Amino acid sequence: MMASYSESVLRPVSSSARVHHAALGGADGREAYEDDEVVVQQLLAAGVPVRELVRARRAFYLRAVTCAVRDLGIAQVLDIGPGLPPYSTRDTHSIADEHHGFRSRVLYADVDPVVVAHWRMWTDGARHRAEVLDLREPDTVLTEAEAHFDLRHPVAVVLTGVLEEVAGGDSPHGCVRRIVDALPSGSALIVSHLTGEQDPELVGRAVEVLSEVGLPLYPRKFEEIAGFFEGLRPVGPGLLPVSLWHPTHADDHAPPVVHAYGGVGLV
C-alpha cells in the first residue's frame, strides 16, 4: 500500500538559501517558493531593507572573490554556505575559471542537500563540485578539502552570509580557526556577517521575523566579527560595512548598507 503524506509534510518549508534568492528578485527568484516570498514581504513590512541588504552582500562577495583569485592569485576556492546558484550574477567557479582556467578548483560546501543538488547540476563534478558539509564539523570539511585541493598551494575560504546562522554555542570562531590553521601560507579568508551595531532595532526585527519561520540568526558586533580574522593580515581596507569594501562604479548609485561587515584576510 502506498504511503500517504499530509499536506503539511509535502509543503516546502522556507530555507535561508531560497529566501535569499527571493529577496534578490528577478531571475534568481525563480528558485523560491511562495512561502519564501511571503517571508521577504514580512521582512519588508517590518521595515527591513532585505533586498538592498542581500544585493549589497552579493556585490561584496563578487568583489572579494575577484580580489582573491585575481589580485592574490589564488586558484582554489572553498565556498562554504554558497546558497543557490545565481542566475543574475557570476558564481565562484566562473570567476576562478576566468583568471586561472583549468588550474582552478572550487568546492561548494553546504549543509542543505537541496542546495548541493543544485550546485551539482551547475558544475562539472570534477574540478568544481559540491558536497553536503557542515561548517560546525570542520574536520569533515577539511577531509573533503584535502581530497579536492592541492594544499601545497593557497586556498580561499568564502564565508559570506553563513556565520550569522551559527549559534555561539557551536563555536563559530573555533570552527573557522580550525579550517584556516590547516591552510598553507598565502591562503585567504573572506567573511561577511550581519551586525546590529548601526541599527539594532531594525536588525532585531529581522531576527524576529526569521526566527518565527525557523531561520534563526545571530548578529555579532564588530569585535566579534573581527575575531574571525585573528592572526591574519587584512587585505585592502580591512573590515568595513560591505558596501564600503572596495566599491566599484557599479555600486555608485546603490544605497550604503551598514547592516553587515565584510573583509578579506591573508594567511
TrEMBL record:
A GO MF term: translation initiation factor activity
Domain of life from the UniProt record: Bacteria
Keywords: Initiation factor, Protein biosynthesis
SUPFAM superfamilies hit by this protein: S-adenosyl-L-methionine-dependent methyltransferases
Record bears the keyword Protein biosynthesis: yes
Pfam family, one: Methyltransf_19
Protein name: Translation initiation factor IF-2
